[in-house]
Structure prediction request, 403 residues.
Amino acid sequence: MHTERSSPASLRPHRRREGSVAITVVILLGIILGCAALIVDVGQIYRVRGELQNAADAAALAAAQALDGTSAGITAATAVVQTFGSAHEAENAAMDFTNDMAVEFGHWYFAGDATATCSPTPCFDSYGAIPATPMTATAVRVTALRTAGASNAVNHFFAPILGISASNVQADAVALGGGPAEAECAFPLVVPDCQVATAATNGTCGWCMVFAASPSDTAGWTSFAASGGCGGPDIDAKVIAACGAAGELVQGGACTTCTQESEVNDTIQVCNGNNMNKNNFCGTIQAILQRDGVDADANGVVDGTAFQVQVPVLDTNLTPATCGTFNFSSTHTMSGFATVTIYGVRCGNPEPLVVDPNFAGEPCQAAANKDVILAKLECDNTVIAPAGGGAFGTDATHTRLVE
Prediction:
């Protein structure tokens, strides 16, 4: 009987194929695990980041509503971040303010703002968790995070096979608060921020602007032009444009018809009170106050009816102590808007003082024989406008996310 035997040489190709298949399987298994890590673990990162973003957005928006230019507002905003943060979950665990969230207050500079201290604009200039100057804090940045250390990094399912056990994940949100960033009814009377700051933050809010044609001006005028002079007819037209046509200048105690729109960051030409009488726009305000009658008392005081307007606040980079050095006769940038009530006006000697009777007893009065406009800062006012201007006693109802 003849028996054929397989030679070892005939088995070698088959064994080579088995080895190649094993290597291929290992490679494919690595690719499959890598894809699983990519799909599952990266997807988990995006899911957690979305949860963190929701927490940061909600906390920042809520905190921005509490900004009012005071230290108390900063404290309230921080507490709001804690409250809203703890109401959210990330990776099936409640957010912890101490470990999972950080809050910073600062100033938001709009695009093209020449006064920006950060760049490129738009940008957020952080003042830290406790700003030294709450008055200029118009924005809040909230960071929600899951990181190694105080917080917990996001653990992975498949990636540890590749040597990646966890990843740090965070999300940021910047929301604008404070006063309005624009005004549809801007009145061409302007005030420097250093004059408004003290009254808006010390709780009195009764600051009476004695705007006189003298070196002691606390307010000025603008034509809203980016450059050039402040001619009388131009200003006079702006006053009328802000309050309607002659004879129907004011209705219901406030300006109701406006054509002058202004925004934070606009550069405008400003002129001082020495132009007030000679350019005649003081007389236009006098006509507004006298719309309800011209009864005069024995002292030549004419009954007037006060009216309320929004006026631009100028960025000065001055403190209240150095505000007396401010130069009105120049170009300036608007940093926000304040609500003021104009109570009275005297336009030249011997023109009578036209004043609302309710102005009696206020902390300031018109000096005899002086050109003067009496206007009082009104705090706790709210306007329907986007937030982002300085906190000058007027709040904007529309807080918004900008980053």
The first strand starts at residue 89 and ends at 90. The chain has two domains: 12-177, 182-398.
